[in-house]
Design brief:
Strand content: 15-25%
Bound molecules: guanosine-5'-diphosphate, 6-O-phosphoryl inosine monophosphate, magnesium ion
Distance between the termini: 26 Å
Helix content: 25-40%
Oligomer: single chain
Strand order of the largest sheet: 9-7-5-2-10-1-11-15-19-20
Length: 431
Protein backbone atom coordinates (compact mmCIF):
# COMPACT_ATOMS: atom_id res chain seq x y z
CA UNK A 1 0.00 0.00 0.00
CA UNK A 2 1.97 2.97 -1.24
CA UNK A 3 0.17 5.77 -2.99
CA UNK A 4 1.25 9.31 -3.63
CA UNK A 5 -0.83 12.36 -4.36
CA UNK A 6 0.65 15.32 -6.19
CA UNK A 7 -1.43 18.39 -5.50
CA UNK A 8 -1.08 22.07 -6.31
CA UNK A 9 -1.24 24.29 -3.23
CA UNK A 10 -1.98 27.58 -5.01
CA UNK A 11 -4.40 28.54 -7.82
CA UNK A 12 -3.24 25.95 -10.35
CA UNK A 13 -0.37 25.70 -12.85
CA UNK A 14 2.18 25.04 -10.10
CA UNK A 15 3.93 22.56 -12.44
CA UNK A 16 2.21 19.48 -11.03
CA UNK A 17 2.71 17.74 -14.39
CA UNK A 18 6.48 17.93 -14.06
CA UNK A 19 6.41 16.42 -10.55
CA UNK A 20 4.04 13.60 -11.56
CA UNK A 21 6.35 12.86 -14.47
CA UNK A 22 9.41 12.79 -12.17
CA UNK A 23 7.73 10.48 -9.63
CA UNK A 24 5.77 8.40 -12.13
CA UNK A 25 8.31 5.61 -12.51
CA UNK A 26 8.06 4.76 -8.82
CA UNK A 27 4.41 3.80 -9.41
CA UNK A 28 2.27 1.48 -11.54
CA UNK A 29 -0.83 3.64 -12.08
CA UNK A 30 -1.12 7.37 -12.78
CA UNK A 31 -4.62 8.53 -11.95
CA UNK A 32 -6.57 11.76 -12.45
CA UNK A 33 -9.38 12.17 -9.91
CA UNK A 34 -10.94 15.56 -10.63
CA UNK A 35 -11.68 18.20 -13.24
CA UNK A 36 -11.46 17.77 -16.96
CA UNK A 37 -9.87 19.53 -19.91
CA UNK A 38 -9.73 22.75 -17.89
CA UNK A 39 -6.34 21.42 -16.74
CA UNK A 40 -3.20 21.95 -18.76
CA UNK A 41 -0.16 19.99 -17.62
CA UNK A 42 3.12 20.54 -19.44
CA UNK A 43 5.92 18.00 -19.53
CA UNK A 44 9.28 18.73 -21.08
CA UNK A 45 11.75 16.03 -22.07
CA UNK A 46 14.73 17.62 -23.77
CA UNK A 47 13.47 19.16 -27.01
CA UNK A 48 10.02 17.55 -26.71
CA UNK A 49 7.12 19.32 -25.02
CA UNK A 50 3.82 17.61 -24.21
CA UNK A 51 0.69 19.44 -23.12
CA UNK A 52 -1.97 17.25 -21.56
CA UNK A 53 -5.45 18.34 -20.56
CA UNK A 54 -7.45 15.21 -19.86
CA UNK A 55 -4.95 12.39 -20.03
CA UNK A 56 -2.83 11.71 -16.96
CA UNK A 57 0.83 12.49 -17.56
CA UNK A 58 1.59 8.79 -17.14
CA UNK A 59 0.30 8.33 -20.67
CA UNK A 60 3.75 9.39 -21.90
CA UNK A 61 5.16 6.18 -20.39
CA UNK A 62 3.33 3.23 -21.90
CA UNK A 63 4.55 0.81 -19.19
CA UNK A 64 2.39 2.73 -16.67
CA UNK A 65 -1.38 2.39 -16.49
CA UNK A 66 -3.12 5.74 -16.91
CA UNK A 67 -6.56 6.11 -15.43
CA UNK A 68 -9.25 8.75 -15.83
CA UNK A 69 -11.23 8.33 -12.62
CA UNK A 70 -14.97 8.70 -12.18
CA UNK A 71 -14.52 12.18 -10.66
CA UNK A 72 -13.69 13.68 -14.03
CA UNK A 73 -15.94 15.27 -16.60
CA UNK A 74 -14.93 14.21 -20.09
CA UNK A 75 -15.49 15.87 -23.43
CA UNK A 76 -15.07 12.92 -25.83
CA UNK A 77 -13.87 14.94 -28.87
CA UNK A 78 -11.11 16.47 -26.75
CA UNK A 79 -10.07 13.09 -25.34
CA UNK A 80 -9.91 11.60 -28.84
CA UNK A 81 -7.97 14.59 -30.11
CA UNK A 82 -5.44 14.24 -27.31
CA UNK A 83 -5.04 10.52 -27.97
CA UNK A 84 -4.60 11.28 -31.69
CA UNK A 85 -1.97 13.95 -31.04
CA UNK A 86 0.06 11.61 -28.86
CA UNK A 87 -0.12 8.80 -31.40
CA UNK A 88 1.04 11.06 -34.19
CA UNK A 89 3.95 12.02 -31.93
CA UNK A 90 4.88 8.34 -31.62
CA UNK A 91 3.41 7.76 -28.14
CA UNK A 92 1.37 4.58 -27.94
CA UNK A 93 -2.09 4.81 -26.36
CA UNK A 94 -3.91 1.51 -26.01
CA UNK A 95 -4.39 -0.91 -23.14
CA UNK A 96 -2.39 1.47 -20.95
CA UNK A 97 -5.41 3.82 -20.74
CA UNK A 98 -8.60 3.23 -18.77
CA UNK A 99 -11.52 5.66 -18.55
CA UNK A 100 -14.15 5.27 -15.85
CA UNK A 101 -17.63 4.33 -17.00
CA UNK A 102 -18.88 6.70 -14.29
CA UNK A 103 -17.24 9.86 -15.64
CA UNK A 104 -19.80 12.43 -16.60
CA UNK A 105 -19.88 13.39 -20.24
CA UNK A 106 -19.59 16.96 -21.49
CA UNK A 107 -21.87 17.81 -24.42
CA UNK A 108 -21.77 20.91 -26.65
CA UNK A 109 -24.76 22.33 -24.82
CA UNK A 110 -22.68 22.48 -21.64
CA UNK A 111 -20.20 24.77 -23.37
CA UNK A 112 -23.02 26.90 -24.72
CA UNK A 113 -24.63 27.15 -21.28
CA UNK A 114 -21.30 28.23 -19.80
CA UNK A 115 -20.81 30.82 -22.54
CA UNK A 116 -24.26 32.26 -21.87
CA UNK A 117 -23.61 32.52 -18.14
CA UNK A 118 -20.09 33.92 -18.48
CA UNK A 119 -21.21 36.53 -21.00
CA UNK A 120 -24.29 37.42 -19.05
CA UNK A 121 -22.57 39.81 -16.63
CA UNK A 122 -23.07 39.43 -12.89
CA UNK A 123 -20.93 36.96 -11.00
CA UNK A 124 -18.56 36.00 -13.79
CA UNK A 125 -15.90 33.46 -12.78
CA UNK A 126 -13.53 33.70 -15.75
CA UNK A 127 -13.75 30.00 -16.53
CA UNK A 128 -11.83 28.06 -19.15
CA UNK A 129 -14.97 27.65 -21.25
CA UNK A 130 -14.65 23.86 -21.36
CA UNK A 131 -18.16 23.10 -20.08
CA UNK A 132 -16.82 21.97 -16.71
CA UNK A 133 -19.24 23.83 -14.40
CA UNK A 134 -22.47 23.03 -16.29
CA UNK A 135 -21.52 19.35 -16.58
CA UNK A 136 -20.84 19.05 -12.85
CA UNK A 137 -24.11 20.91 -12.24
CA UNK A 138 -25.93 18.24 -14.24
CA UNK A 139 -24.09 15.52 -12.31
CA UNK A 140 -25.23 16.88 -8.97
CA UNK A 141 -28.69 17.74 -10.31
CA UNK A 142 -29.03 14.06 -11.40
CA UNK A 143 -31.80 14.34 -13.98
CA UNK A 144 -29.63 15.84 -16.77
CA UNK A 145 -26.34 14.01 -16.34
CA UNK A 146 -25.08 11.31 -18.69
CA UNK A 147 -22.20 9.04 -17.75
CA UNK A 148 -19.55 7.52 -19.97
CA UNK A 149 -20.95 3.99 -19.62
CA UNK A 150 -24.29 5.15 -21.01
CA UNK A 151 -22.64 6.02 -24.32
CA UNK A 152 -22.26 2.30 -24.94
CA UNK A 153 -26.03 1.72 -25.11
CA UNK A 154 -27.29 3.48 -28.28
CA UNK A 155 -31.04 3.27 -27.67
CA UNK A 156 -30.73 4.28 -24.07
CA UNK A 157 -28.46 7.21 -24.99
CA UNK A 158 -30.87 8.46 -27.65
CA UNK A 159 -33.77 8.29 -25.20
CA UNK A 160 -31.85 10.26 -22.58
CA UNK A 161 -30.83 12.91 -25.09
CA UNK A 162 -34.42 13.20 -26.34
CA UNK A 163 -35.53 14.17 -22.86
CA UNK A 164 -32.51 16.31 -21.93
CA UNK A 165 -31.74 18.34 -25.07
CA UNK A 166 -35.06 20.23 -25.42
CA UNK A 167 -34.81 21.22 -21.76
CA UNK A 168 -31.25 22.40 -22.28
CA UNK A 169 -32.34 24.44 -25.29
CA UNK A 170 -34.92 26.21 -23.16
CA UNK A 171 -32.37 26.90 -20.41
CA UNK A 172 -29.82 28.24 -22.88
CA UNK A 173 -32.41 30.48 -24.54
CA UNK A 174 -33.46 31.83 -21.15
CA UNK A 175 -29.85 32.49 -20.09
CA UNK A 176 -28.81 34.21 -23.31
CA UNK A 177 -28.38 37.96 -23.21
CA UNK A 178 -27.19 40.36 -25.89
CA UNK A 179 -27.80 40.42 -29.63
CA UNK A 180 -26.25 37.02 -30.45
CA UNK A 181 -28.86 34.28 -30.88
CA UNK A 182 -28.25 31.36 -28.53
CA UNK A 183 -27.19 28.13 -30.16
CA UNK A 184 -29.85 25.40 -30.10
CA UNK A 185 -29.19 21.68 -30.28
CA UNK A 186 -30.73 18.64 -31.93
CA UNK A 187 -30.90 15.43 -29.88
CA UNK A 188 -30.54 13.19 -32.94
CA UNK A 189 -27.49 14.99 -34.26
CA UNK A 190 -25.79 14.85 -30.87
CA UNK A 191 -26.76 11.17 -30.59
CA UNK A 192 -25.17 10.38 -33.98
CA UNK A 193 -22.00 12.23 -33.09
CA UNK A 194 -21.60 10.77 -29.61
CA UNK A 195 -22.25 7.21 -30.75
CA UNK A 196 -19.29 7.58 -33.08
CA UNK A 197 -17.17 8.84 -30.19
CA UNK A 198 -18.43 5.93 -28.10
CA UNK A 199 -17.17 3.45 -30.71
CA UNK A 200 -13.74 5.03 -30.62
CA UNK A 201 -13.60 5.19 -26.81
CA UNK A 202 -15.16 1.80 -26.09
CA UNK A 203 -11.83 -0.02 -25.59
CA UNK A 204 -10.94 2.29 -22.73
CA UNK A 205 -14.23 2.54 -20.84
CA UNK A 206 -14.32 0.32 -17.80
CA UNK A 207 -14.97 0.10 -14.06
CA UNK A 208 -11.81 1.89 -12.99
CA UNK A 209 -12.68 1.76 -9.28
CA UNK A 210 -12.45 -2.04 -9.46
CA UNK A 211 -9.30 -1.84 -11.57
CA UNK A 212 -7.59 0.31 -8.92
CA UNK A 213 -8.91 -1.73 -5.99
CA UNK A 214 -7.59 -4.92 -7.63
CA UNK A 215 -4.31 -3.14 -8.31
CA UNK A 216 -3.96 -2.20 -4.65
CA UNK A 217 -4.71 -5.80 -3.59
CA UNK A 218 -1.93 -6.95 -5.91
CA UNK A 219 0.50 -4.50 -4.29
CA UNK A 220 0.52 -1.98 -7.14
CA UNK A 221 1.42 1.64 -6.46
CA UNK A 222 -0.68 4.56 -7.52
CA UNK A 223 0.16 8.21 -8.06
CA UNK A 224 -2.76 10.61 -8.06
CA UNK A 225 -2.40 13.63 -10.29
CA UNK A 226 -4.33 16.57 -8.90
CA UNK A 227 -5.70 19.02 -11.41
CA UNK A 228 -6.24 22.69 -10.66
CA UNK A 229 -4.94 24.04 -7.35
CA UNK A 230 -6.21 23.74 -3.80
CA UNK A 231 -7.40 27.36 -3.80
CA UNK A 232 -9.70 26.38 -6.68
CA UNK A 233 -11.25 23.51 -4.69
CA UNK A 234 -15.05 23.81 -4.77
CA UNK A 235 -15.39 23.48 -0.96
CA UNK A 236 -12.20 24.98 0.43
CA UNK A 237 -11.07 27.36 -2.30
CA UNK A 238 -11.84 31.02 -2.82
CA UNK A 239 -15.51 30.41 -3.53
CA UNK A 240 -17.18 31.29 -5.85
CA UNK A 241 -14.00 31.90 -7.88
CA UNK A 242 -13.15 28.22 -7.94
CA UNK A 243 -13.59 25.23 -10.19
CA UNK A 244 -16.45 22.75 -9.77
CA UNK A 245 -14.60 19.80 -8.28
CA UNK A 246 -12.52 18.85 -5.25
CA UNK A 247 -8.97 19.41 -6.34
CA UNK A 248 -7.62 18.76 -2.82
CA UNK A 249 -6.67 15.15 -1.98
CA UNK A 250 -10.07 14.91 -0.30
CA UNK A 251 -11.35 14.40 -3.85
CA UNK A 252 -9.39 11.18 -4.36
CA UNK A 253 -11.60 8.66 -2.60
CA UNK A 254 -14.75 9.88 -4.30
CA UNK A 255 -13.04 10.72 -7.56
CA UNK A 256 -11.70 7.25 -8.18
CA UNK A 257 -13.28 4.83 -5.73
CA UNK A 258 -10.45 3.77 -3.49
CA UNK A 259 -10.50 4.25 0.28
CA UNK A 260 -8.76 7.44 1.41
CA UNK A 261 -6.44 5.58 3.80
CA UNK A 262 -4.47 4.23 0.84
CA UNK A 263 -2.86 7.59 0.17
CA UNK A 264 0.37 7.53 2.12
CA UNK A 265 2.38 10.43 0.72
CA UNK A 266 1.15 13.87 -0.22
CA UNK A 267 3.44 16.09 -2.24
CA UNK A 268 2.35 19.72 -2.33
CA UNK A 269 3.54 21.66 -5.35
CA UNK A 270 4.10 25.42 -5.22
CA UNK A 271 5.59 28.01 -7.48
CA UNK A 272 8.29 30.19 -5.95
CA UNK A 273 5.75 32.98 -6.46
CA UNK A 274 1.99 32.90 -7.14
CA UNK A 275 -0.14 32.93 -10.27
CA UNK A 276 -3.85 32.86 -10.90
CA UNK A 277 -5.92 32.71 -14.11
CA UNK A 278 -9.48 33.92 -14.16
CA UNK A 279 -11.23 36.20 -11.72
CA UNK A 280 -11.26 36.38 -7.93
CA UNK A 281 -9.27 37.95 -5.10
CA UNK A 282 -5.49 37.67 -5.13
CA UNK A 283 -3.96 39.62 -2.22
CA UNK A 284 -0.32 39.45 -3.36
CA UNK A 285 -1.02 40.29 -7.00
CA UNK A 286 1.67 42.43 -8.62
CA UNK A 287 -0.44 44.70 -10.73
CA UNK A 288 2.40 47.11 -11.30
CA UNK A 289 2.21 47.96 -14.99
CA UNK A 290 4.13 47.06 -18.15
CA UNK A 291 7.55 47.77 -16.60
CA UNK A 292 6.76 46.25 -13.24
CA UNK A 293 7.91 43.08 -11.52
CA UNK A 294 4.61 41.33 -12.31
CA UNK A 295 5.10 41.70 -16.04
CA UNK A 296 8.75 40.68 -15.76
CA UNK A 297 7.82 37.45 -13.96
CA UNK A 298 5.02 36.81 -16.48
CA UNK A 299 7.45 37.14 -19.38
CA UNK A 300 10.33 35.14 -17.91
CA UNK A 301 8.03 32.47 -16.46
CA UNK A 302 5.97 32.35 -19.69
CA UNK A 303 2.89 32.80 -17.56
CA UNK A 304 0.18 32.33 -20.15
CA UNK A 305 -2.53 29.72 -19.66
CA UNK A 306 -1.93 26.35 -21.34
CA UNK A 307 -5.64 25.88 -22.06
CA UNK A 308 -6.85 29.37 -22.93
CA UNK A 309 -3.64 31.34 -23.61
CA UNK A 310 -4.82 34.01 -21.14
CA UNK A 311 -2.04 35.95 -19.37
CA UNK A 312 -1.80 34.60 -15.84
CA UNK A 313 -2.03 37.10 -13.01
CA UNK A 314 1.24 37.13 -11.08
CA UNK A 315 2.14 37.94 -7.47
CA UNK A 316 4.48 37.26 -4.57
CA UNK A 317 4.48 34.00 -2.62
CA UNK A 318 1.64 33.91 -0.12
CA UNK A 319 2.52 31.89 2.99
CA UNK A 320 -0.89 32.50 4.57
CA UNK A 321 -2.65 30.89 1.61
CA UNK A 322 -0.24 27.96 1.27
CA UNK A 323 -0.22 27.20 4.99
CA UNK A 324 -4.00 26.97 4.73
CA UNK A 325 -3.97 24.63 1.72
CA UNK A 326 -1.05 22.53 2.98
CA UNK A 327 -3.06 21.80 6.13
CA UNK A 328 -6.18 20.91 4.13
CA UNK A 329 -4.16 18.71 1.81
CA UNK A 330 -2.14 17.08 4.59
CA UNK A 331 1.04 17.85 2.64
CA UNK A 332 4.07 15.91 3.86
CA UNK A 333 6.52 17.95 1.79
CA UNK A 334 6.57 20.69 -0.82
CA UNK A 335 8.37 21.09 -4.11
CA UNK A 336 9.26 24.66 -5.03
CA UNK A 337 8.94 25.23 -8.76
CA UNK A 338 10.09 27.94 -11.18
CA UNK A 339 12.70 29.33 -8.76
CA UNK A 340 14.80 30.32 -11.81
CA UNK A 341 12.15 32.88 -12.79
CA UNK A 342 13.01 35.05 -9.78
CA UNK A 343 16.68 35.56 -10.79
CA UNK A 344 17.64 39.18 -11.34
CA UNK A 345 15.25 40.70 -8.82
CA UNK A 346 16.93 42.88 -6.18
CA UNK A 347 14.51 41.99 -3.44
CA UNK A 348 11.86 39.29 -2.96
CA UNK A 349 8.76 39.67 -0.85
CA UNK A 350 6.93 36.90 1.01
CA UNK A 351 3.45 37.52 2.38
CA UNK A 352 3.36 36.37 6.00
CA UNK A 353 0.07 37.87 7.17
CA UNK A 354 -2.85 40.04 6.13
CA UNK A 355 -4.34 43.21 7.40
CA UNK A 356 -8.12 43.36 7.40
CA UNK A 357 -10.14 46.22 8.85
CA UNK A 358 -7.08 47.57 10.61
CA UNK A 359 -6.03 44.33 12.35
CA UNK A 360 -3.47 41.66 11.49
CA UNK A 361 -4.59 38.12 10.78
CA UNK A 362 -2.42 35.09 10.06
CA UNK A 363 -5.19 32.77 8.91
CA UNK A 364 -6.67 32.59 5.42
CA UNK A 365 -10.25 33.77 4.94
CA UNK A 366 -11.27 31.65 1.98
CA UNK A 367 -14.50 33.55 1.44
CA UNK A 368 -13.77 35.68 -1.58
CA UNK A 369 -15.59 38.74 -0.24
CA UNK A 370 -13.40 38.74 2.89
CA UNK A 371 -10.18 37.89 1.09
CA UNK A 372 -10.86 40.81 -1.24
CA UNK A 373 -10.48 43.14 1.74
CA UNK A 374 -7.15 41.68 2.91
CA UNK A 375 -3.96 43.65 2.40
CA UNK A 376 -0.77 41.58 2.35
CA UNK A 377 1.93 42.10 4.97
CA UNK A 378 5.36 41.29 3.64
CA UNK A 379 8.81 40.41 4.80
CA UNK A 380 11.58 40.93 2.27
CA UNK A 381 14.67 38.96 1.43
CA UNK A 382 17.60 39.81 -0.83
CA UNK A 383 17.37 38.46 -4.38
CA UNK A 384 20.15 37.00 -6.56
CA UNK A 385 21.51 37.74 -10.01
CA UNK A 386 22.68 34.29 -11.08
CA UNK A 387 20.81 32.35 -13.77
CA UNK A 388 19.71 29.16 -12.03
CA UNK A 389 18.69 27.11 -15.05
CA UNK A 390 21.98 25.18 -15.19
CA UNK A 391 22.02 24.37 -11.47
CA UNK A 392 21.71 20.62 -10.79
CA UNK A 393 22.59 20.31 -7.14
CA UNK A 394 22.00 22.27 -3.99
CA UNK A 395 25.56 23.60 -3.91
CA UNK A 396 25.05 25.14 -7.39
CA UNK A 397 22.46 27.53 -5.96
CA UNK A 398 23.47 30.99 -4.68
CA UNK A 399 23.14 31.50 -0.95
CA UNK A 400 20.28 34.01 -1.41
CA UNK A 401 18.22 31.44 -3.34
CA UNK A 402 18.85 28.82 -0.66
CA UNK A 403 17.88 31.29 2.04
CA UNK A 404 14.67 32.12 0.18
CA UNK A 405 13.73 28.43 -0.07
CA UNK A 406 14.71 27.81 3.56
CA UNK A 407 12.57 30.71 4.70
CA UNK A 408 9.56 29.38 2.76
CA UNK A 409 10.12 25.99 4.37
CA UNK A 410 10.38 27.53 7.83
CA UNK A 411 7.28 29.70 7.44
CA UNK A 412 5.26 26.80 6.03
CA UNK A 413 6.58 24.33 8.58
CA UNK A 414 7.21 21.85 5.78
CA UNK A 415 10.21 20.13 4.26
CA UNK A 416 11.13 21.26 0.76
CA UNK A 417 12.01 18.05 -1.06
CA UNK A 418 12.78 19.45 -4.50
CA UNK A 419 13.55 22.75 -6.18
CA UNK A 420 12.87 23.21 -9.87
CA UNK A 421 14.95 25.57 -12.00
CA UNK A 422 13.50 25.01 -15.47
CA UNK A 423 10.79 23.10 -17.33
CA UNK A 424 12.94 20.09 -18.20
CA UNK A 425 12.92 17.04 -15.94
CA UNK A 426 16.72 17.41 -15.62
CA UNK A 427 16.32 20.91 -14.20
CA UNK A 428 15.40 19.55 -10.79
CA UNK A 429 17.37 19.64 -7.56
CA UNK A 430 16.73 17.26 -4.68
CA UNK A 431 17.02 19.12 -1.41
P1 LIG B 1 0.46 22.29 -14.00
O1 LIG B 1 -0.90 22.62 -14.55
O2 LIG B 1 0.50 22.42 -12.52
O3 LIG B 1 0.97 20.96 -14.46
O4 LIG B 1 1.44 23.41 -14.56
P2 LIG B 1 1.49 23.97 -16.06
O5 LIG B 1 2.13 22.96 -16.94
O6 LIG B 1 0.18 24.52 -16.48
O7 LIG B 1 2.42 25.25 -15.85
C1 LIG B 1 3.73 25.15 -15.42
C2 LIG B 1 4.64 25.74 -16.52
O8 LIG B 1 5.93 25.98 -16.01
C3 LIG B 1 4.82 24.80 -17.70
O9 LIG B 1 4.95 25.53 -18.88
C4 LIG B 1 6.14 24.09 -17.36
O10 LIG B 1 6.84 23.62 -18.50
C5 LIG B 1 6.90 25.21 -16.72
N1 LIG B 1 7.86 24.84 -15.70
C6 LIG B 1 7.81 23.77 -14.85
N2 LIG B 1 8.83 23.85 -13.96
C7 LIG B 1 9.52 24.97 -14.26
C8 LIG B 1 10.66 25.62 -13.69
O11 LIG B 1 11.23 25.19 -12.69
N3 LIG B 1 11.09 26.77 -14.29
C9 LIG B 1 10.48 27.31 -15.37
N4 LIG B 1 10.98 28.43 -15.89
N5 LIG B 1 9.39 26.73 -15.92
C10 LIG B 1 8.92 25.59 -15.37
P1 LIG C 1 -4.22 23.04 -13.92
O1 LIG C 1 -4.54 21.60 -13.65
C1 LIG C 1 -5.25 27.24 -13.44
C2 LIG C 1 -9.52 28.20 -13.18
C3 LIG C 1 -10.10 29.03 -14.31
C4 LIG C 1 -11.17 29.80 -13.55
C5 LIG C 1 -11.69 28.76 -12.55
C6 LIG C 1 -12.95 28.05 -13.01
O2 LIG C 1 -3.53 23.26 -15.21
O3 LIG C 1 -3.52 23.64 -12.76
P2 LIG C 1 -13.41 26.17 -14.82
O4 LIG C 1 -13.20 26.17 -16.31
O5 LIG C 1 -12.67 25.10 -14.10
O6 LIG C 1 -14.86 26.22 -14.45
O7 LIG C 1 -12.81 27.58 -14.33
O8 LIG C 1 -10.65 27.82 -12.40
N1 LIG C 1 -8.83 26.96 -13.59
C7 LIG C 1 -7.50 26.82 -13.60
N2 LIG C 1 -6.52 27.72 -13.37
N3 LIG C 1 -4.94 25.96 -13.73
C8 LIG C 1 -5.92 25.05 -13.94
O9 LIG C 1 -5.66 23.73 -14.09
C9 LIG C 1 -7.27 25.48 -13.93
N4 LIG C 1 -8.45 24.86 -14.12
C10 LIG C 1 -9.40 25.78 -13.90
O10 LIG C 1 -9.15 29.89 -14.88
O11 LIG C 1 -10.59 30.83 -12.81
MG1 LIG D 1 -1.77 24.01 -15.87
Amino acid sequence: MSCTCVVGLQWGDEAKGKIVDLLGNEHDFVVRYNGGANAGHTIVWGDRTFKLSLLPTGILKPHLRSVIGNGLVVYPPRLLEEIGQLRSGGINVGANLAVSDHCHVIFPYHMEEERAVEQGGGAVIGTTGRGIGPCYQDKVGRTGGIRMGELLYPEHLRERLKSIVPRKNRIIAALATGPEKPRQFDANEIGDEYLKHADALKPYITDTAKLLQDGLKAGKKIIFEGAQGSLLDIDHGTYPYVTSSNSLPGGIANGCGIPARNVTRIVGVVKAYTTRVGKGPFPTELDDGPNGIGERIRKIGREYGTVTGRPRRVGWFDVVAVRYTAALAGADEVTVMLLDVLSGLKELAICTGYQIDGRRIDSFPSDAFLLQRCKPLYETLPGWEMDLTSARKKSDLPIEALKYVDRLSELLGLRVSLVSVGPDREQSISI
